[in-house]
Amino acid sequence: MLTNAQNQPLFPNPTGQQNPAGQPNPAGQFLPFLSRPSLQIKKNAITDDYKVTSQVLGLGINGKVLEIFQRKTGDKYALKMLQDCSKARREVELHWRASPCSNIVRIIDVYENLYQSRKCLLIVMECMDGGELFSRIQDRGDQAFTEREASDIMKSIGEAIQYLHAVNIAHRDVKPENLLYSTKRPSALLKLTDFGFAKETTSHNSLATPCYTPYYVAPEVLGPEKYDKSCDMWSLGVIMYILLCGYPPFYSNHGLAISPGMKKRIRMGQYEFPNPEWSDVSEEAKQLIRTLLKTEPTQRMTITEFMNHPWINQSMEVPQTPLHTSRVLKEEKDAWEDVKVCHVVACFRSAAAAEMYQCADCAHRSGGNDQCLGDHEG
User: Fold this and answer.
1) Does residue 197 contact residue 61 with C-beta atoms inside 8 Å?
2) Which residues make up each annotated binding site for ATP?
3) How many CB atoms lie within 10 A of CB 60?
4) Alpha helices in the chain (DSSP H)
5) Where do transmembrane segments lie in this chain (predicted)?
6) How big is the CA angle at 204 (ends 349 and 190), to the nearest 5 degrees?
7) What's the count of helices (H) and strands (E) in the chain, helices before strands?
């Protein structure tokens, strides 16, 4: 639970969650995860405890991530700054709740400080020195990237999603840019980060706001209907597809972030496994992708089914077939950089409505291509 300095909860305890280890929740479900201790938001200046640098480590949905050093130990961490509003507090609450998972970037400290006369939340996180998932594959030189390696990567991502879904959190922005390696060592852990779109899902089809990144968006998120955490499973399918060939299953033919034709193909689930990139990929891998990219959410594979699939939980049996992925990602490096630029899209179905909307929470006027800092529909 996120608390203030007086140890008062800032958020009510969600029904059926955060019970002591070994205690069933009110719904009778057993959660196999330990709750983190309550987080104390610190009110002293962050500069008392950390040296803040101007070195930018990355860009998240809501701003820069800076390099900082703990004054006592000299250890390096990452600092994310959010303007203090209800959405920011929800992001911190959900990320903190998920931090015990070894495949999710861990929050160390949270400070409430004034910055340029505005109250901000400063989130100190473990520093992920190993870089982004696709960058690591692009930079591996002549060493072949194999199907078995793709299986191991998907298992790591699945561990993060399994933890989130078990505590009823939908991430809603699972994509390669949000998957970071802890170090540059081959044995480094792959971890999920950036909870800017994350939302608690306490009931079926409880999500409504179309928050998404175009290449990874599930078809139900594009429409007027409500949706649930199964949208993360679609994103897993897209990432798996790209890992096995180097390009996405759905893309715009007109250089746009998302086009009408691309939306239509996503809604209809129209994609192929073209040669030569797919000629040597196992049929088992292709079938797993098909079960993840089901346009009907109720027919889509769940995270439990995914983690129990032989291609995931028996990776030593997955063939070590060399893939085209590394070559294709290198050849299309500039195109992938463009994809990162358009990683945030309108929170509104009408661009005109977006321009008219003023968020009361954070005084941020949303343009047609920006995500409003407030999430008003769910």
Assistant:
1) yes
2) 80
3) 21
4) 86-98, 133-138, 147-166, 219-222, 231-245, 260-268, 283-292, 303-307, 310-313, 325-331, 333-341, 351-356
5) none
6) 80
7) 12, 12
Helix, strand, coil in percent for the chain, rounding step 5 = 35, 20, 50
Instruction: Tell me the domain boundaries of the chain.
Output: 2-126, 131-341
Mind telling me the catalytic residues?
173
Q: How far apart are the first and last CA of the chain?
A: 20
| CB neighbour burial string for 334-358, b if at least 16 within 10 angstroms, e if fewer | eebeebeeebbbbbbeeeeebeebe
For 376, half-sphere exposure in the C-beta direction (CA atoms, 13 angstrom radius) is 14
- CATH top-level class for 2-126? alpha beta
Q: What local confidence, expressed as pLDDT, does residue 227 receive?
A: 78
The residue with tokens 């070195």 is 55
Cβ within 8 Å of residue 194, ≥6 positions away = 60, 61, 173, 178
Q: What are phi and psi of 89, to 5 degrees?
A: -70, -35
Report the alpha-carbon distance of residue 218 to residue 238 in Å, rounded.
9
* Whether this model's pTM surpasses 0.90: no
Fold of 131-341: Transferase(Phosphotransferase); domain 1 (1.10.510)
Task: Considering only the C-alpha atoms of the chain, give the largest distance between any 2 of them, rounded to a whole number of Å.
Answer: 62
Contact 160, 101 (CB under 8 A): yes
The residue count of the chain comes to 378
Q: What is the pLDDT of residues 6-48, one digit of tens each?
A: 333 443 343 334 443 333 443 333 345 556 777 789 999 999 9
Q: What is the DSSP letter of 378?
A: -
What 3-state class would DSSP assign to 132? Answer: strand
CA-to-CA dists, residue 309 to 158, 275, 284, 315, angstroms = 11, 25, 10, 10
Q: How many CB atoms lie within 10 A of CB 326?
A: 22
Q: Which run of H or of E encompasses 40?
A: strand 39-40
Reduced to 3 states (helix: H, G, I; strand: E, B; else coil), residue 334 is: helix
DSSP state of 257: S
**CA 232/CA 221 separation, integer angstroms:** 11
